[in-house]
Amino acid sequence: MPISDDLRDLYQQVILDHSRHPRNHGELSGDCIHVHGDNPTCGDEIDLWLKLSPEGGVEDLKFSGQGCAISQASASMMTVKIKGTSKDKATSLLEDFRRVVTGEGQVADEDALGELQLLEGVQKFPQRVKCAMLAWRALEQALGEGSGDVHA
Amino acid sequence: MTDLSHLRADFPVLHQQVHGRPLVYFDNAATSQKPRQVLDVLRHYYEVDNANVHRGLHELSMRATDAFEAARVRTARFLGADRPEEIIFTRGTTEAVNLVAQVWAAQFLRPGDVILTTGMEHHSNLVPWQLAARRSGATLRHIPVLDDGTLDLEALDTLLDGPVKLFAFVHVSNSLGTINPARELCAKARVRGITTFVDGAQAVGHLPVDVREIGCDFYAFSGHKMCGPTGIGALYGRYELLESMDPWQGGGEMILGVTLESSTYKAPPARFEAGTPDISGAIGLAAAMDYLDGIGLDVIQSHGEALTRLAWEGLRELPGVRLLGPASPRAALVAFSLASAHPHDLVEFVNTQGVALRGGHHCTQPLMKRFKVPGTSRASFYFYNTPKEVQRLLEVLREAIRFFG
Lengths: 152, 405
Hints:
The structure holds two protein chains of two kinds.
Chain A: H1 5-10, H2 13-20, E1 33-39, E2 44-52, E3 58-66, H3 69-82, H4 87-102, H5 110-113, H6 129-144, E4 148-151
Parallel strand pairs in A: 1-4
Antiparallel strand pairs in A: 1-2, 2-3
Helix pairs in contact in A: 2-3, 3-6, 4-6
Chain B: E1 17-18, E2 21-22, E3 24-25, H1 36-49, H2 59-79, E4 87-90, H3 93-108, E5 114-118, H4 127-136, E6 139-143, H5 153-160, E7 164-170, H6 182-190, E8 195-199, H7 211-214, E9 218-222, E10 233-237, H8 239-243, E11 255-258, E12 263-265, H9 279-295, H10 297-316, E13 321-324, E14 333-338, H11 343-351, E15 355-356, E16 358-360, H12 365-370, E17 376-380, H13 387-404
Parallel strand pairs in B: 3-15, 5-6, 5-7, 7-8, 8-9
Antiparallel strand pairs in B: 1-2, 4-10, 9-10, 11-12, 13-14, 14-17, 16-17
């Protein structure tokens, strides 16, 4: 039976690989920021732990959670990209990533996004934007107000 | 299996392509499709008889009132109620639960009383009781759900021997497909003087339901899950009980007399139906009942059982599939989880093949926690579904399992 191109774009091998084998999976202990994010309509959950360096960069981050392949892969790919970046860089990646999945606005730095651009397929499935954005909403909270809860 | 495929001609919505494939609609537990016979009645009402009910003395108002009250009589007959005054029209099951959880609970619950529910309730038959417990100081207790998706009936006796005032339970579980022994449960409650409330959202229109035979005090259902319009449903209440209850919402229709200081109220059901009701909804609901009785609820139930058996057996043979709920007897739905794909990914996949499933917690989060799954995928059937559609589902699921690996 033919599988649509849109669906193959949504579930690319890289994305499925991240969802099956999430990177930076687990918890951080000690002095760190913890954000719990959930999507009450679908039940997806992300816990994000983030440690800032004295200079204000993202020294380390880990996540755990449960949910669809898109939400978990997006979280995993995000941690790979964000680990070791400055706060400003993380914020501009966040803004660009939102543009990628919603299709709204011009991406400022495609090269910086790298394989995160593979989540572009979400554009064709508007109901899944929240899934892709869940971990990033948690990151936004962590970098802005610190520990707390976010609801997609 | 009785061949009911000729009835598909009555449902315009079923005859369409979705993503280039014929629609396979398996989300009937969320809402059913509507036959032309119901749609025609709605159109006729608005084109010919539309007027406000009860107060008008003109021809159209009298016609609308007659049709609306005839719908109440029809509903009473459909449920086996003693009299039409025992039927209160509501927006659906949720509103019916809230009516009782607000009015009855405020009047009769005291601190220390227990509201007993079960671990398999839809949020709509749980959250209103949580609110009622908080307001009254009563405590909420739950009958555990066993691994096979049935209620722990041994725990039930012990729980019922406590200071239980109200026992609210779901007749047919929307997440597990379990059919609870409503008559037996109500009998156990009745001998102890406990008031019973049955959530019949997944039962009415899907299997024969007779409230007198069940012996419940309250019974609620939604019209849209049984070929009726959305926005209409009903609460059945034993008349003496309704009569003992205070009004719910205030407004027109429910009063006998009003002064600037105070009012007197009508007897049930008017006491609980403030404001202009969903007139067309009630008339459409009655048309749905005529339609379903024309097929026969026993026929509908056995057709659903046959489709479910076919789906259940087919799913059992697929790798990495875990089925929830009892194998038999069960309502016309299958709920399962897949090792390789989250329900939302699976539902997305099958949607691109024209198959409508539902994935997620199905408004039963405590139950998902109980079975340690983030959610399930659910295929729910109605009489217009066919064995061929079930085969198509199984074929698409095999492909999904290959895709997600």
